[in-house]
């Protein structure tokens, strides 16, 4: 998605906005009171909801939260491109905060659109930091920030800086348990939407897995709006599809598929092939069986599929579809 012109707000205005909505800070720093002896963990995960891009953002989150409450998961987590920290997104954040248990956030590149900063987004969502770790009973979770300054790429940053990289190495080295890694931008490949220094991050992760097999249970990422799983040097990477749409790369494929009044409200709506229903995944980690089970969802396109519209992309077509695949994987170690 193209960058938007900055529309910065003053520090005083931003503080006053946050003061009006204290519940935003309520739960992001909660710790999970799960005994280390527990053998089955479940959590809900959703990525790239983009409520500022197309209609229905609040409803997408509401459906996800209600489903996770019914599933009685231990926590929920979103993989980035959640929302701008704007007052207009307070109802959307409130829908997310309806989940009664711990709720975790990953910073996505579009969470700082319209001139907002990472600091503002962290404060709005109630995150403990831009990158952080938390315990989930018998496992550890690490949340990385792929939006740091550095690198040579123009436009949105896709970089993990040296301090965060050193912190990651330390966290993995002293982790007494297997670890789940969460990041917005993937680092399992070197294409132009992945982390610019992905090979450096992979080297740290692979070294930890080589040193102590089973250290890395899985790496989850979003950003690409694709659906795939791959293993590289003993580390398993899972790309979680967007909850909302595929971005059309070919301008000739772009057209109106919603009422004109909706397109008037969302300026980039013609640029997407939207999903009719929201996508998310339910993850179960069964340590008794050494299994990770990812249950996905399936829907359909709004209007014609991208290919009949004339879409063209260098991405693998078999990974571009309106669903998240269900997978049953064996854990390392």
Q: Structural class, from helix and strand content?
A: alpha/beta
Q: How confident is the prediction overall: mean pLDDT? A: 89
Compute the number of strand runs. 14
CATH hierarchy: architecture: 4-Layer Sandwich
CATH level-1 class? Alpha Beta
DSSP summary: helix tally? 8
User: β content, as a range?
Assistant: 15-25%
Q: Tell me, what's the shape?
A: globular
Uncertain residue ranges: 1-30
Q: Level of helix content?
A: 10-25%
Succession of helices and strands: HEHEHEHEEHEHEEEEHEEEHE
Please give the largest β-sheet. 6 strands, mixed
Number of separate domains: 1
Q: Output the CATH topology.
A: Purple Acid Phosphatase, chain A, domain 2
Strand order of the largest sheet: 3-2-1-12-13-14
């Amino acid at each position: 998605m193209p960058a938007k012109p900055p529309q910065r707000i003053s520090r005083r205005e931003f503080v006053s906005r946050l003061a009006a909505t204290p519940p935003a800070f309520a739960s992001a720093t909660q710790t999970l009171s799960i005994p280390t002896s527990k053998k089955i963990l479940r959590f809900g995960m959703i990525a790239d909801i983009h409520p500022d891009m197309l209609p229905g953002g609040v409803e997408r989150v509401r459906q996800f939260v209600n489903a996770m409450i019914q599933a009685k998961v231990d926590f929920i987590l979103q993989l980035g491109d959640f929302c701008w920290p704007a007052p207009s997104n307070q109802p959307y954040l409130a829908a997310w905060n309806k989940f009664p248990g711990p709720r975790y956030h990953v910073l996505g590149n579009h969470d700082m659109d319209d001139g907002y900063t990472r600091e503002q987004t962290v404060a709005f969502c109630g995150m403990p930091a831009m990158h952080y770790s938390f315990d989930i009973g018998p496992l550890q979770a690490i949340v990385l920030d792929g939006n740091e300054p550095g690198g040579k790429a123009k436009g949105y940053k896709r970089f993990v800086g040296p301090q965060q990289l050193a912190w990651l190495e330390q966290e993995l080295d002293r982790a007494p348990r297997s670890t789940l890694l969460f990041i917005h931008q993937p680092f399992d490949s070197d294409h132009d939407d992945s982390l610019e220094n992905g090979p450096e991050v992979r080297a740290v992760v692979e070294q930890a897995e080589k040193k102590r097999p089973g250290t890395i249970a899985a790496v989850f990422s979003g950003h690409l709006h694709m659906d795939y799983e791959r293993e590289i040097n003993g580390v398993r990477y899972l790309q979680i599809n967007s909850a909302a749409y595929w971005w059309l790369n070919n301008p000739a494929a772009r057209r109106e598929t919603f009422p004109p009044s909706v397109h008037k409200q969302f300026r980039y709506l013609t640029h997407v092939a939207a999903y009719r229903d929201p996508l998310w995944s339910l993850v179960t980690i069964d340590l008794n069986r050494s299994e990770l089970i990812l249950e996905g969802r399936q829907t359909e396109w709004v209007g014609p599929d991208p290919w009949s519209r004339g879409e063209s992309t260098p991405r693998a077509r078999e990974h571009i579809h309106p669903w998240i695949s269900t997978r049953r994987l064996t854990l390392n170690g």
